Amino acid sequence: xxxxxxxxxxxxxxxxxxxxxxxxxxxxxxxxxxxxxxxxxxxxxxxxxxxxxxxxxxxxxxxxxxxxxxxxxxxxxxxxxxxxxxxxxxxxxxxxxxxxxxxxxxxxxxxxxxxxxxxxxxxxxxxxxxxxxxxxxxxxxxxxxxxxxxxxxxxxxxxxxxxxxxxxxxxxxxxxxxxxxxxxxxxxxxxxxxxxxxxxxxxxxxxxxxxxxxxxxxxxxxxxxxxxxxxxxxxxxxxxxxxxxxxxxxxxxxxxxxxxxxxxxxxxxxxxxxxxxxxxxxxxxxxxxxxxxxxxxxxxxxxxxxxx
Length: 308
Ligand code: CP
Ligand code: NVA
Prior knowledge:
It is a single chain. The protein has helices at 12-29, 58-69, 90-100, 111-120, 135-149, 165-177, 193-200, 212-215, 237-244, 251-256, 277-280, 287-306, and strands at residues 47-52, 73-78, 103-107, 125-127, 156-160, 180-184, 206-208, 221-224, 262-265. By secondary structure, it is α/β, with parallel strands linked by helices. Strand 3 (103-107), helix 4 (111-120) and strand 4 (125-127) form a beta-alpha-beta unit. The protein is globular. The chain binds phosphoric acid mono(formamide)ester and norvaline.
């Protein structure tokens, strides 16, 4: 069973293949209107369940459109409206859904839910974000970097802000695709120790630099994300804002990066908090290409899972 649960648990050649496949599928569409079918219909006859226990714009729409472009059909399910939210076990849900559908994508809170779904499902399961990781986002980000600047191997990526789930998957990608990774943010919001250890054992440059201006020196890519994630308590907001304000990505910070550095943000963004509008809409920014590439990257992930 080929589940796509995380970047660090997927073999390097498989990840490389998915990014290359995403780039070629995008090129093959060659500017045709959004939402029109691909020439190739590898998901014809396939039903995909998209389960959301948290809100989503990009993940929901890009998976839905991606399946349809490849000839498949989708059902979008809210965790709350399913029996999942009313006491039925994940294991039973996984076994039942597997009798109906060919592929399950789930966005959930606890990583354990994803793993239980994968353990008991007899169809592939894709991680559409948990509190700990967001691998589909980073597949799109790697694709976006390479589309704009060529191979990411050996480049320097700087993450500014909260060492959250998106940051974790970026660290996994650094280990797998072989690029250097610097985290800049307050110590209380450092990436999890497990991910730091993974990066340090991967033979890449991994560092933590508290001074954001120093951190971005020589950066080929600067990345940030919301200061308060969906699973964070609302009460964390004020403290987070105070702690993270020095790590805002603004024009002064971007000026210290390499002249051709890119800026990424997975979105949704809180403009003028984690990044200024001047940066988000400025010459380094590729945020809307990233959003588009969710579509292409996830099509490649789904084809890989299904072997089609
Ligand atoms: N970046 C991302 O996953 O966006 P959504 O929460 O809108 O799906
Ligand atoms: N870190 C964010 C990412 C949203 C796509 C969150 O988990 O809310």
